[in-house]
Design goal:
By secondary structure, the chain is α/β, with parallel strands linked by helices. It has a single domain, classed as P-loop containing nucleotide triphosphate hydrolases (Rossmann fold), CATH 3.40.50. It has 6 helices and 10 strands, in the order βββαββαβαααβαβββ. A 6-stranded mixed beta sheet has the order 6-7-8-3-9-10, sandwiched between helices. A 4-stranded antiparallel beta sheet has the order 2-1-4-5, covered by helices on one side. α6 links the parallel β7 and β8. The chain starts with a strand and ends with a strand. The relative contact order is 0.20. It binds adenosine-5'-diphosphate and magnesium ion. Magnesium ion binds next to α1.
Amino acid sequence: MTNVVLGKDLWKTYNMGEGIEVNALRGLNISVDKGEFVSIMGPSGSGKSTLLNIIGCLDTPTKGELCLDGQKTSTISEHELTKIRAENVGFIFQTFNLLPALTVMENVEFPMRNLSGSKKPNKSTRIQNAKAALEEVGLLDRLNHLPNKLSGGEKQRVAIARAMVNHPKFILADEPTGNLDTETTQNIMEQLHSINKEGTTIIMVTHDKETIKNTRVLKIRDGVIET
Ligand SMILES: Nc1ncnc2c1ncn2[C@@H]1O[C@H](COP(=O)(O)OP(=O)(O)O)[C@@H](O)[C@H]1O
Ligand SMILES: [Mg+2]
């Protein structure tokens, strides 16, 4: 078993009422191996975010099967899924999605609070881990800043630290450089590649050809992956 993500015949149908249905995914197949860096490209509305949300268990497929690390997600309870998500998945978004009332430090500490039982570190370990993650992205001098005092690139580096603080099996990034200039984009891509080299699988949705270097590119169109 080398794949961390295996999606078979994934369908996602949104029911819009009055008999109108939107098929965001139409029998999509995807397999991602441990340690890969995969880029997903495709036109707006082709189903990229829907796919990422399903892989991250933020949403469920209408039909089809998703296996994470060899485990069928359809047979797992909602409670277990929340646990799997907290332990295994890091999310990075185009709009950063930092909590505005929390400091940089508190934002990065946050995912560790969602761990349960013996996996949840105590306060001092949480602070230590958050600092280590922020050091990796070069933000130790911003610990007590609120997000609105940071540049876009800094915000995304906080989001990267937050995504990796629980040492997830994989990171899902939905257009992580979509709001950033060219130079900042390069910096963020370097950070992501360095995390990938340490063994974390990365699946990234992107529009920017500059960001797909040294990744495996999958093209999605009308809810399926083009071969
Ligand atoms: N919550 C939703 N309700 C209804 N339709 C949706 C919803 N989310 C996405 N869609 C539709 O599904 C299709 C794929 O959307 P999305 O996955 O966001 O595409 P992309 O990320 O590639 O731009 C689009 O037609 C979109 O309008
Ligand atoms: Mg999208």
